[in-house]
Amino acid sequence: MLRGLYTATSAMTTNNKKLDVVTNNIANINTTGYKKDLVVSETFPEVLIKKIAGSNDMMDTDFFKGVEVVQNGNTYEMKTEGGFFRTKTPLGISYEKAVNFAVNEEGYLSTYYRDQDGNIDTSAGYQVLGNRGPILVGNGQLEVNDRGQVMVNGNIVDNLVMITPPGIIGTLNSGVRLDKIETNHEQGQVYETDNKMDLAIKGRGFFQVETPEGVRYTRDGSFKLNTAGELVTDEGYRVLGIEGPIVIEGAELAVSERGNILVDGEYIDQLNMIEIVNLRDLRKDGDNLYRLEDGMELESQPFRGEILQGFLEGSNVDSVKEMVEMITLFRNYESNQRMIKAYDDTLQKTVNDIGKV
Question: How many other CB atoms are there within 10 angstroms of residue 117's CB atom?
């Protein structure tokens, strides 16, 4: 009963945060270069549940029907009906009937997710456990057979499947929790403004601007000139070129696709564009700016996109999808409210009935 209350409450808390994110996305539909946020939630670890007075004797492995293994390049997808896979999460060990994994940078088997380009990323994954603990593959040749056995260079090193006693009847978790908020950096629609100061980025990359807190990154190219003739953002932050802040002294401004800046036909500087590889380490910093998360190192590569003069990039928020998501969240929230009320009424009735005995 109380577990049901915890489950419904955790779902309401997560839904409330998702609603905050969705409404913020909708509010920024018309914000130049805005990138929508996504809430990543996860369930609490799946724990085993057991029948009262159930046997602790291990299941006869003769009844084990094996596992379904699908290999796709460097990743594996596995399912089983005869046991459980285990993953080590920050909240404890979770037991699953299916697991997807790859080898992480440290050489261990780990769950993963795919970034917006479809690339495998194990940096935020959880270690997949064998019967002996974490499984180290290193640089060896990995194979997994239909018995769940893990082989490295042809040698069996562990088994991924935990065979449980007959008394185990399934798993149970305590609901969902907010894991993190991530930003979707997909390209927004580019539209023409005919303002020579407006610049849009086609492809990956960021403008670099100078703020009192240090260098920040932005996709918002709605620039203007300050009283000193410097190219600045709407908030007054100076846009950086290769030589530093960009000073425009002349009548005719032209910016090439590579970011070269010409004033009255004369080259003066080049926009200091940057293409950030570790986008997932960027954090929004207000004023449509981004900064690198504390303690993380910048991973960058040469800018390969194009600069479009007289254009701006719109937000990548799909208003219809966000509205549908908001309605769904409202309904889920109301459903969990009704569930909590039902649990509360049942508990109250139980207490009153016990008091009459």
Answer: 10
